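Researcher: Predict the fold of Suppressor of Ty 6 homolog.
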Amino acid sequence: MEEARNSEISQVFGGDDSDDEELPPSGLSARQGGESRRDLDEEEGTEEEGPPTDDMGDFIVGDDGRPINISRPGGMDAEPALLEAQEIFGLDFDDPNEFARVAEEGLGSEEEEEEEEDEYLSGEEEEEEDEVGGSQRRRRRRLRKARKKTSIYDVYEPSELERGFFTDRDKDIRVTDMPERFQTRSLAVQKTEEGELDEEAEWIFQNVFSKHPISKQPLSFSQKPRGSAGRGSSGTYSKPPSAVPKIREALNFMRNHSFEVPFIANYRKEYVEPELDVHDLWTIWQSDEKWMQLKQRKAQMVRLFKRLQDYQFEKVREQPDKALTEDTRPVSEEDIARLKAVKTAEELSDVFAQFSLYYGRDLVDMQHLKAMQKRQGDNEDQELEVTEGSGGGGRSKKKTAIKQAHRKTFYVACQEAGLGSLAAKFGLTPEQFGENLRDNYQRHETDQHTVEPEEVAQDYVQPSGVFTSVRKVLQGACHMVSLQLAAEPLVRQAVRQVFQTRALLNVKPTKKGKKLIDDTHPCAGMKYMRNKPVRDLAGADFLRLVQAEGEGLLEMKIGIDLDQGAQDTRRGGGGLQSYFEEIRQLFYRDEFSRLVEKWNAQRAQAVYSALVKFLYPLMQKELYTKLLIEAKEHVLRSCVQTFRDWLDGAPLAAKKEEDEEDRYLSQGEGPFTKVVAVAFGSDKMVPAFCCALDSTGSVVDYRRLPNILKRRISPSERERNEKEKDLESFKDFVSRKRPEAVALAAESRDALMLADDLSNALVELEGEEGVPVVPVELVTPDVAKIFSKSPRAKESFPEYPELLCEAISLGRRHQEPLLEFSSLACAEDDELLSLKMDPLQSSLDTDDLRSCLELELVTRVNDVGVDINFCLENPHGVGMLPFVCGLGPRKAMFLLKILKQENSQLKNRSELVTQCSTGPQVFINCAGFIRIDTNAFTDTDNTYIEVLDSTRVHPETYEWGRKMAVDALEYDETGDESHPSAAVEDILLTPDKLRDLDLDAFAEELERQDYGNKRTTLYDIRDELFSPYKERRKPYQSLSPEEKFALLTGETPESLYKGRLVTCTVVGIVRRKPPRDVLDRANPIENKTTGYWQCPFCLKDDFRELSMVWQHFDDGSCPGQGIGVRARLENGLSGFIHTKNLSDSQVNAPEERVHIGMTIHARVLTVNVEKFSVDLTCRSSDLKDSDGRFSVAKDVYFDKQAAEADMKKEEAAHKHPKQRYIKRVIVHPAFLNASFKEVEKELAKMDLGEAIFRPSSKGTDHLTLTWKVDEDILHHIDIQEQGKPNQFSLGKSLWIGSDEYEDLDEILARFIQPMAALARELISHKVYRPANGGDKKTLEKLLSDERKKNPKRIPYFLSALKKSPGKFCLAYQPGSKQIVEYFSITPDGYRYRNQVHPTVNALITWFKGHYRDPIPRPVPSSQAMPPPQHAHHRGYQHPVASPMSSTHGSSRTGGSTPYTPQWPTATPPPSHYGGHQASYSQQGGHQYSGYSGGGYQQQQYRGGTAGAASYGAGSYQGGYQGRSGGGGGGWGQQNWTSEQSFSRTPGQTPAYTPTQTPGSYMGSLTGTPHSRSSHPRHTPASPLQTPILDE
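Model: Structure tokens for Suppressor of Ty 6 homolog follow.
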């Protein structure tokens, strides 16, 4: 058991002896050393004898040759994942006893379960001891032995195992002799088949290097990113045909020789250059993956075709006598050959679409048959098992087959109906039409059937089912033909090509987009576009449009011939006529006969349906996807280019003396410059830190600088002293550490000030102590900030604050940028993707972006090389090793693990094979990029030191390098001087002798020896001997002014540009002092009014004497004339506004327009990146920019007409704004904070009589009550509030007219509910008719029809008025003339002819007895009448028509009694009758126009006296004096004479207006609009019109 436990531990750490034959043991961490779960399970429960093994295995032995067991302290060298597991589970994995305890007892409470089990077993032993003896004890031992032990798979989560490379696949990748990136690709690199290389090379050339994108992509091919699987090529580039053999050679190296791209680019240049560079090779590497994907899909489809072919053959063989139907299409060898000839994924999709169409039913039948056979086989196996188990007496359970639902398409229905034979009579097969379309001429003539289509279709008509008529049969046949055409690959390819060439793009903003897309939005110049060809889209324009569309800001439409949609009204299609008319001629019979015309019509309909229903939607989707992919690839290229620029910058080189040309190699120091890094934060209260890094990047010391950000010229003496103290501390720190550079974080504008202070301090230090001045460099802090907040920083420096960690990373980036970036890429939390490389970076797929960036790291790391011994000694340097050619994270960590186990360094490259067990394939790939510092090893070392290991020369060409050294030195190859190492060492000291070598002759000799063309390789060897590992990156450059500006301000040319609107604050007035000669010629100005003198420059005007002005000049106190304004932008930039740019009018002094602290709006004129300032203008004309001088550049296809039309609509909407309401805080179930339209929708769902309170647009002291009288009839009632505590709450008293209510419930109970009950009673009455909302003409027609039916009876009807909600009419015909009278509803009943009737029956009974009575006339009253009201004075209503009656009065001169004229309800309206309009006058009384009619005598009221009235039989006269009435007769006159105009009684609420007959005058009645669009709330109403309540 002890051996099993120790074996378990060895499996966790990879130190088990069972792996010795396969690979060296690993003991560095659980991440690299995990065994497979299969191996663990095989060893569980077994016991082996022998001593326990340690994780170091047999690799460290003593003098006697026996292994020495070395135990490591827990946690010293443990990996982070192992430490995390120890913390989580509370285990010490370095303690075998601890792990053994867990393996035996488990992590939970298994010990308690074991005790319970033992008690149970012991109880049974006592009972059965006599019978079975010791069998129970043996059973207990077997149970204990069979208990499963805990493995690492029980301790770690699967995701943790994958992240730590513990899985079986990780182990296979480590031990397989193939580059790791070849194995971890989504489709691993495989050997080629015979003839595949030529085919793949041609495919890559045609589809990658010769295929142009649809949109304009400005970046060249060398900037094309790699690693985005499934992507199409893009960029304006093309390769010559001579690139095809070079592509073939590159593929041969990759697939058959397993050479990675950096190896080919460095050591096989002759085979790929000059056509291909390293970026092209990465593209080929990724294109190979797409080729393999296509090949794999084709192979799968070929297998499917063959299985279906076999199924069809078996089906025919089973029923040889059964005739095949006409639409049966067997799979032929031609179909399989056509499939194998597919070259692109689009073609493959086309073939599969056609296959699914023709063989869909056969596929379903084949799958169903296969499922049945499988179920039958399972049933037979089950029956056999049951029979064997029960000895023949068992009973098998039959499995019930679940019938799968299958959706039958219309095409299948057409097939089952036999319409395939009818479709074949259209004259062309889909293949023939596709060839006609491909060749763009009628290659195949259309065959003409001899019978008309209707007659042929008659034979397919079914008595029942789908096709029950000729029309449906023809529709089905046309549908089959259109689907077959749309599924034909040739047709799809032709239409796809035309669609992508002719496609146009239309863009328009949504309602939301019109508000949000301003000049600062990326789509500002593209929000209106009409008929823009998609080929003119550039860069990431389409991606920006798609993002705006996703945010609901834009609407896009892609199609061809978009302007042709209006012309094609015959078929109702849009954008189809042009191309449709072109291709319909290719499926057309050019003959003139009725038969041909009918078939041509069917053919045209089939072609049209194929385009409209199937092809165009498919092509739109494909084009949309392609344009989006190309736009994203543009963003991807931009990100990669930015990252490449970061990696391509070399670090700051150390200053070396002439005799110290290679100090690193000679003295064994680190490869980097010594750096002091300074980091500070945005909060000045947080202390800054500086740290010193040695030449290996290790932290030597650090200092805390709490006051370094304070100003050296601060007005506070305390701050100045604190600043000087920190500067002195910094000088002392630099004096002690002697760095070669100072790296300062470019955090904010304070970095400029701090850089100057530090530079001055270093100059002072040079004068004080003679310390050489070192440069102070601003460094981008983005990588350092990510590191300071990462788990890596907390693990490496747990006690350091974030700013100190940031300083450390900042210094290391300054020492070697590649090291810090590679460390980000190796982090587990995708820290590399946290870098901001492009504004649209977030739209990219993270896997694609990560892959592209990692490949850039691979390219640059192999250019620089990696010192593996440096990685062993410095943990922060291991980040570059996984990117070495041939390696990866698994192989790199495994390599370091072996070297740590051996506790030795790598002294030469050959030890990669002998000591580290690296396979030959991986060794060939990585050997040339592993740097070894040969000078670090002394001559006393027994190991052979190869000088060429410190160069880029590959071990396979060492002999050529030695030969070149011997020949250049002219050593005698037979003598002692011909020693290879000695010759190379000597030539490194005198490399100029290599220039005399004839390398071309050497290359010819090698070619004769069948080494191939090695000319380029020989020249590379010579260059490397001149300067081993010469820096290939660009020399270090300080940040440019533009880069500093962008870093310190956060502004880019896209965010800060000429014409940008900004907000700034005035911080001062800029003045210019006049020179002395100008002062001598000055002419002070005297104010004649005050007697004071004014300075002509600063305009100070409080000088009593002229001499005081001259003294003002002489003592220099005159600040000078103001020339402009100094402002501060929100981003901290300084702004300057010249006086001439302050206003369109003349400004003598800036103080006239602005003052300090004032916030103003301005436009940017110029940007000075070096001075961190901008010039501004705040003139009104510039801000308005009517001429568009500062507007964003518009797209060439910008739709100005649409933009101007929308602008005019917006301006018109601003001129006539909609009335808005203020939301109220009222808690009541019948109250809604909603508009009229919203309430109207709510009431539409409610019953009759329901009512809703809502806010009023009249103000916060009003409410509106909307009552549902009838369907589509809503009555709006104004409620006035009084006694409001605030404007949002409900008033204490509520007034409707002259009636007061306490709350909303009282209004509903006393006002609405009684009237609603009366309205329902009336509407449900038998004589009620809707009559189109009480339309008079409709009522008259109803009366006339009813009268004709029964002439002896007087017909009458009731109806509700839609135009005057709350009013009703009573229409009757006592004789030949129809009469319509109007009445209203009050809470007390129906008010009709000044009488209130409690029920409808009472009203009708009273009407029947009094219909002959004369209609009541107005009666004077002693109450005052209110003044005329306009429509916006709510509540002024008819005294009869409204439920609540209010008194009106008029004041007379001489103390006359106020009166109220009363008009009868049924009096014809004075506002409009018989085509004449009413007039109203307040001059001396009321005057109304007369109208033709029956015969009122004139009534005059003068001085309060009323005249008598007489009436004519059967007619009446009405009206009032004023404009003359129409034609003969007319009403008599009624005059009221008043010496004063009507006035409103104080405290009285106007509520009513004189009665008007609804439906027969121009206007509307109380509270009812004609419509929402013609609501007269804003126009003054006629004095006799009823004011409209708020809606």
